[in-house]
Specification:
The protein is mostly helical. The protein has helices at 8-86, 88-108.
Length: 109
């Protein structure tokens, strides 16, 4: 098989071209890596913000539910108090029955 002989300057030029291309590739890879890092950081910051907003929303919702439950309990207690004042004998009978039942259950251990 015949081989083509190249003179030294062509080989040196090709090596220099390849080396230049490698340096360009390295620079491109560095730019891409930096760009991807920036995108990832941006996405992470957005995710953190979304989590903070969700947490604040959940906290506000829990506070609202707690207030509503407290209001409902107060209304229930007021209604119970009014019923007890209107029917003291029935209230006393219910309390006595509840006490008897609780005492019976505790005595059974």
């Amino acid at each position: 098989m015949a081989r083509k002989h190249t003179n030294g300057s062509d080989a040196e030029t090709n090596i220099a071209d390849v080396a230049g291309q490698i340096e360009t590739l390295k620079a491109d890879i560095a730019e891409l890596t930096e760009a991807l890092g920036g995108i990832a950081e941006s996405k992470a910051a957005q995710a953190r913000q979304d989590v903070r907003q969700a947490g604040a929303s959940a906290r506000d919702r829990a506070t609202d539910l707690g207030r509503a439950a407290q209001e409902q309990a107060m209304e229930g207690a007021a209604a119970l108090s009014q019923t007890a004042r209107q029917n003291p004998t029935a209230t006393l009978g219910l309390v006595a029955a509840a006490g008897f039942a609780l005492g019976f259950l505790m005595a059974r251990k």
